[in-house]
Amino acid sequence: MALAYLGSKKPNTTAAMSSPPELILTQDELKKIAAYKAVEYVESNMILGLGTGSTAKHAIDRIGELLRQGKLSNIIGIPTSTITHEQALSLNIPLSDLDTHPVLDLAIDGADEVDPNMNLVKGRGGSLLREKMIEGCCKKFVVIVDESKLVDYVGASGLALPVEVVPFCWKFTASKLQTLFKDAGCVAKLRVISGSVDHPYVTDNGNYIIDLYFKKDIGDLKAAGDAMLRFAGVVEHGMFIDMATTLIVAGELGITVRHK
Ligand SMILES: O=C[C@H](O)[C@H](O)[C@H](O)COP(=O)(O)O
User: Fold this and answer.
1) Ligand 1, residues 50, 52, 83, 146: which to mutate, most atoms within 8 A of Cβ?
2) Entry's SUPFAM superfamilies (predicted)?
3) Does domain 27-150+242-259 sit in CATH 3.40.50.1360?
């Protein structure tokens, strides 16, 4: 389905004068298109899960804008990270938590990978645990991505599958994870703060992240997830299996919406 895009249209500067300008949207513009589409599912009086990351940020900005304009009212947001909490506060979105609101109407969040069955990899921004807790309590979970996030199988992007672990003996846990997936050519690496060599990245929950890189498909995702969770040092993994109810993908040719 073709769309009137919200993003700016950039001319192809290498094109001949007589050629029509080519429409090239940046990845961030595509993320914004998906995010704005997702906010169409938001109604007044909803309890909303507010995701984390550069795509979810656009959705939260839009919700703040609609509240300010009086087009939405009586929204309560449950943020999935401290950074989202701060963004929502700055937009005057009323906030609460799972203790007070254990059932949510809708959550909107991005993803790092989406496989053909709408299974997700999340957590490259480090927020997978709170995201999984909150998005697991939603009646509807709308996932918003640009088309670069679509993969044939989990791990196919060559980027990491994040696993949140307790800091205590993290090397031991990383080694167990790497061995668990040795047939898939797994390499486990401690996530470090950007720009540092060995300073561990610490999550909102005071834990570390082990990033798993695969050379091959790990196969049965449920079995892989259950096996990881059997290690006492593993807090949670970044595979969100069978959780998304709606997927919104923005690409150069338009926007697609899939429901489960
Ligand atoms: O921890 C981060 C979250 O799972 C994000 O939703 C995910 O990494 C996607 O982020 P982005 O929208 O910035 O690509």
Assistant:
1) 52
2) D-ribose-5-phosphate isomerase (RpiA), lid domain (SSF75445), NagB/RpiA/CoA transferase-like (SSF100950)
3) yes
